Amino acid sequence: MTQATQTPTKGIQLTETALKQVLMLREQEGKDLCLRVGVRQGGCSGMSYIMDFEDVSNIGEQDEVYDYDGFKIVCDRKSLLYLYGLVLDYSNAMIGGGFEFTNPNANQTCGCGKSFGV
């Protein structure tokens, strides 16, 4: 895992590699979007990570916003209960590559790394 780009005081941290990948993907969208990260019920371990771009106008009062040099990561407070301290990394490995979630709150993680249990 690469080093997180911000101090650990942020509830959701991005590595430099993940930030570069997210910025590249956002540029392909052609809009100034933020990244919403959250959880939902389901997945093989009980809860699944969700992550998608969203218009900044959708940021609400119930959301926590983390700024990374002008790029915003948004997480609703309910999801943040399960994600606080999460480190989002990115790997371009041929097998098993993609975004990787390191969640200090998870007591079990499925093999694909996209779901977890608490």
UniProtKB/TrEMBL annotation:
BP-aspect Gene Ontology terms: iron-sulfur cluster assembly
Domain Core: 12-114
InterPro entries hit by this protein: ATAP, ATAP_core_dom, FeS_cluster_insertion_CS, HesB-like_dom_sf, IscA_plant_cyanobact
Pfam families: Fe-S_biosyn
Domain of life assignment: Bacteria
GO molecular function list: 2 iron, 2 sulfur cluster binding; protein-macromolecule adaptor activity
Database matches in Gene3D superfamilies: HesB-like domain (2.60.300.12)
NCBIfam families: iron-sulfur cluster assembly accessory protein
Entries under PANTHER family matching the protein: IRON-SULFUR ASSEMBLY PROTEIN ISCA, CHLOROPLASTIC
Family: Belongs to the HesB/IscA family. Ycf83 subfamily.
Protein name, UniProt field: HesB/YadR/YfhF
Organism: Crocosphaera watsonii WH 8501
